[in-house]
Amino acid sequence: MQQQLISMLELQEAMNSKVNSEWREQDFEWYRAIWVECAELMDHYGWKWWKKQQPDVNQVILELIDIWHFGLSIRLLSDEPNQSGYARIAEQLAGEYSNEELESDFRLDLEAFTALTLESKSFSMQAFCRLLSGVGLSFEQLFHRYVGKNVLNIFRQDFGYKDGSYLKEWQGKEDNEHLVEALAELDPKQPDFGAALYKKLQARYPK
Questions:
Q1: Phi and psi dihedrals of 104, rounded to 5?
Q2: What domains does the chain contain, in order, with CATH numbers?
């Protein structure tokens, strides 16, 4: 687990630096990004009592992965951007990883996590783990999904996300949906998983 956490911290550092080389000095409100994602997640899970709703589990998981990106970013700011720093953060996260007893309603755990995020302006690994357990997402699955979304984020940057020329929807589907389909076509244990996924997305993207 610790080595996979180090790998994800390295990927997140690289992604943040690709967007802004001085991201560590910018005082970005990562906690705000988390609670906004929580609201989007709630919409995908369903909360409206006046209409029939079924949780869209794939989209819920994608929102959890987005939250994980921002949570890693918060934790990265707590130490130096080097191997020793990543190792210390990974050790802390691994120590906080748990499978606590869940609330009877996933939405209550989500609201508790959101409230804690707003109150502390930080990232609680334990509270996040309750959300992972609530949708049956293991640490291994979190790792594979995170790598996938990280590749999509890099793909977006390479194809014009920052200047507004990137197309978020192709062939009637959002890029997140294409990501889910491309992930299903690959073995996440293959050594070149990230590179192969990038090629899959590139093949699907309009020329």
A1: -70, -15
A2: 1-135 (1.10.4010.10), 138-207 (no CATH)
